[in-house]
Design goal:
By secondary structure, this protein is α+β, with helices and mostly antiparallel strands. The protein has seven helices and five strands; from the N terminus they run H-H-H-E-E-H-H-E-H-E-H-E. A five-stranded mixed β-sheet has the order 1-2-5-3-4. A hairpin with a 4-residue loop joins strand 1 and strand 2. The longest helix is centred in the middle third of the chain and has 35 residues. Pfam families: Gly-zipper_YMGG, OmpA. Its main location: membrane.
Length: 216
């Protein structure tokens, strides 16, 4: 039993180590798929290895790793394809990042909204409708719409503004056919900057709406 448990640990550790060696930024079309397979294998081994006991544990870990690898590779391929299409179809102001197990679509608030307003303006509304079309083409996912601000002004006001802006974006997605149960909208205010708030350029980067797409 001790040997089986040790083998499970070694299998999981080896898989996690391999996953850590995967290049974060994709160098070819298969990188995210391979990363998903490795992560899935590790999770499958952990889950499989906790079932039964004794000599069956290692066998279950191996089976779990194999199944997890297949599922993980499928998720990676799913995201690779959707990210490629979004990068092709969305405007240059929109950033699409594939993090391996989810996509992050980032839209600058300064283009989406007028100053101190949660009413959508500008051409990025067309990009939101394009994004909604993609979400309808890839329906097996959940969507988080998160508003962010810089640290100018009152923190409580910024929190409320970021929430209202996230809700406005989510409304466009729903009105474009994305099922309501898939979407959550909320604000983070000034709490999660991606750049310094000490410069004009940094504050502009922090004023953003992120749409996070997570495969189910």
């Amino acid at each position: 039993m001790i040997r089986a448990k040790s083998s499970v640990v070694l299998l999981c550790a080896g898989t996690i180590a391999l996953a850590g060696c995967v290049t974060p930024e994709p160098q070819n079309g298969n990188t995210r798929t391979q990363n998903g397979a490795l992560i899935g294998a590790g999770l499958g081994a952990v889950i499989g290895g906790t079932r039964e006991s004794g000599s069956d544990r290692l066998k279950n870990a191996a089976v779990g790793a194999a199944v997890g690898a297949i599922l993980g590779a499928g998720v990676g391929s799913y995201l690779d394809q959707q990210a490629e299409e979004l990068n092709r179809d969305l405007g240059n102001d929109v950033d699409v990042t594939n993090n391996g197990d989810h996509l992050v679509v980032t839209m600058p608030q300064d283009v989406l909204f007028a100053v101190d307003s949660a009413s959508l303006t500008g051409s990025l509304q067309n990009d939101l409708r394009t994004l909604a079309h993609s979400l309808n083409q890839y329906p097996d996912s959940t969507v988080e719409v998160i508003g962010h601000t810089d640290n100018t002004g009152d923190a409580g006001y910024n929190q409320d503004l970021s929430s209202r802006r996230a809700t406005s974006v989510a409304t466009v997605l729903r009105n474009s056919g994305v099922a309501s149960h898939r979407i959550r909208a909320f604000g983070r205010g000034e709490n999660e900057p991606v750049a310094t708030n000490l410069t004009h350029e940094g504050r502009a980067q922090n004023r953003r709406v992120e749409i996070i797409i997570r495969p189910n």
